[in-house]
Amino acid sequence: MEVLKNAIQFVLDLGAPVFVPLIMIIVGLIVRMKLRDAFSSALTLGLAFIGMNMVVGFMMDSISPAAQEFVKNSGINLNAIDGGWTPMSTLAWAWPLAFLMFPVQILINLLMLALKQTNTLNVDLWNVWGKIFTAVLVIGVSGNIPLAFLIAAIQVVLELKMGDVNQKQIQKLTQIRGVTCTHGMTLFNVFLYPINRLLDYIPFFNKHIDANWLKQKLGIFAENHVMGFIIGVLIGTFAQYPPQKILILGVQAAAALTLFPMVARLFMEALAPLSDSISDYMKRKYSDRQLYIGLDWPFMAGCNELWVAMIIWVPITLLWAVILPGNNILPFGGIINLSLAVPALIVTGGNLLRMIVLGVLTTPVFLYVATFFAPTITNLAKDTHVINVKDGQFLSWSSIELPDFRYLFAQASNIVHGEFLGLVLAIGWLGLFYWYYKGMQKRADQLSTELDGTSHHMSV
Amino acid sequence: MKRVIVACGSGVATSQMVSSKLKNLLQKRGIPAQVDAVDIKSLDRHIKNCDVYVSITKPDKEYPVTVCSGIPFLTGVGMDAELEKIIQALK
C-alpha cells in the first residue's frame, strides 16, 4: 500500500504536463486507441500545458504592470487579471481526478435516458472540463472532494434538463433540427428568465431590431486581435503610459488574445480522438431512439444577435468594472461575454433589445463572482504549478460560465464547515430553475406547433 | 493541396473536433487535403484561401466556395452524404 501511495505521489510530483499525459495514454488504451495515436495525443496534451503557461505568463507580464499603474493613478483596485476561459480549462485538466468526470457525465446521461428522465444525448465531451472546473472551485472553497463530485453531477443533470427544455427555442433560432445545447452556460438562463419576464410588461421591448446589418458594421471589433489591441490601448491609456508604451501594450494584448485560442486548440486536438470514440459509442447505443443530440454552443454562432450584443457589452463591462464597489477584476481575456450572450439569446428568443438590457443589468454578477473566485483560481494555479502567477498577482475569468450556479453551490458546500446560508440560497436557486423549466416547457409547446412542417431547412 | 476550413465560435473546440474527424475520414479515403479549424469571427479572411468551408451554423449568405455542413459530423446523422459532398468538391 505504502509503495503504491509513494508511486502515485511520485507521478503527481512530476507535474500536470507529465502526469496528465500519462493518464491520457492509459485512458486512450482503455478505449482501444493504437499506442502510437495514444502517445501522440498524450504528448500534445502535455505540450498544451506548457504552451498555456507561456501565453498566460506573457499576458500577466504585459498587462499586470499597466493594471498596477492604473490602480496607483486612480485608486481603483483592479488587481485580478482576466485570462478568459482557456487558462481555466488548463487548470481544470491539471486536476489529478479530472478524467473521472468522463464516466460521471456518461453514466448519468445513460441512466437518465434509460429512466426516460431526459431525451437528450450529450455528445459534447469537450465541455466535461466545465464540470471539472466546477469541482475544483468547490474544492477551493470548502475542500470537500465528495461534495465536489456531487455538485458536478447535479450540473450534469441540469444541463441535460436544459437541453430538453430549450431544444424547440434553439431550433427556432438556428433552424437546425434534432440538436440542442447542453453547455453548462445555459444554467444562467435561470437567472435571466425572471428579468425577461418583467420586460414583458414594457411593450417597447417587443420591438425587433435586425442584427445582420449591425453585425456587418461591428463584426471586425469581435476579431481577437482587433479587440485585444483596443483593450490594450485602453488599459495603457488609463495607466497613463506614454504613447509608445500604449501602442506596444496594444500589440502585446492583441498577441495574447490571438495566441490563447491557438494554444487551447492543442487541448482539443489531443482530446478529440478520445471524445470522438466515446461519443460514437454512445450514439451507436441509442441509434434506434429519436434523441436530441446535445452539442457545444457554436452551432448557434450564426445568430448575429450574439455578436452584436457582445460587442455592445464590451464598453459597458469595462465601465461596470471601474465603478462597481468591491470589484477587483480587470476584464481582458474574457471580455467577449459568451457566457451571458448564449443564455440571453435563448431566454429572449433572439430579441436583441432585451439581450442588451439583460446584459447591462447582469454583467455585475459575472464580475462579482469572478472577484470572489480570484483567490481560489490563483491558488489553484499555484498549487498545480501549471500556470505561474507571481506573488501579488491574481488570475480569474471575468465572464465565468454559470456564475450563479457555481457561486451558490460552492457556497453550499461550506455546509461541511457548519455554514447553512449557501445551501439555503442554492435550494432557492433550484426553485427558480423549476419555474424556468415550467415556463420554457410552455414556450416549447407553442413553438412545436409553429415549427412542425418546417422541414425544408438543413437536412440534419 | 486543397484546403478545407471548419469554423466555430472560438476556433478551439467544435471546429477542432470536426476538423480532426474530417482529417481522419479523408486520410482513410486517401484524399489529400489540408483541414484547418478557424475562428468564425475571422471567417471573411480565411474564406479567401480555401476550397471548402464546413459550417457549424446555418450559413446566412453566399460564399465563393463550396459550403458543407459540419453538424452531421457531430451528430453522426447524414455524415456519409456530407463527406461525399466534401470529397466531390476536393476533386
Automatic annotation (TrEMBL), chain A:
Name the membrane topology term: Multi-pass membrane protein
An annotated Gene Ontology molecular function: galactitol transmembrane transporter activity
Q: Where is the PTS EIIC type-2 domain?
A: 8-460
UniProt main location, coarse: membrane
Q: Does the keyword Transmembrane apply?
A: yes
GO BP of this protein:
phosphoenolpyruvate-dependent sugar phosphotransferase system
- GO cellular-component term (any): plasma membrane
| Membrane-crossing residue ranges in chain numbering | 6-31, 38-60, 93-115, 135-156, 176-199, 220-240, 246-268, 306-323, 329-348, 355-374, 415-437
UniProt KW keywords: Cell membrane, Membrane, Phosphotransferase system, Sugar transport, Transmembrane, Transmembrane helix, Transport
The protein's superkingdom reads Bacteria
**Compartment(s) where it occurs, according to its Swiss-Prot or TrEMBL record:** Cell membrane
Record's PANTHER family? PTS SYSTEM GALACTITOL-SPECIFIC EIIC COMPONENT
Protein name in UniProt = PTS galactitol transporter subunit IIC
The organism's taxonomic lineage, starting at the top? Bacteria, Bacillati, Bacillota, Bacilli, Bacillales
Automatic annotation (TrEMBL), chain B:
The biological process GO terms on file are: phosphoenolpyruvate-dependent sugar phosphotransferase system
Metal-binding as UniProt keyword: no
State any single GO MF term: protein-N(PI)-phosphohistidine-sugar phosphotransferase activity
InterPro entries with a match to the protein in the record: PTS_EIIB-like_sf, PTS_EIIB_2, PTS_EIIB_2/3
Annotated PTS EIIB type-2 domain ranges read 2-91
> Mind telling me which Pfam families this protein's record contains?
PTS_IIB
Keywords, in A-Z order: Transferase
Q: What is this protein called?
A: PTS galactitol transporter subunit IIB
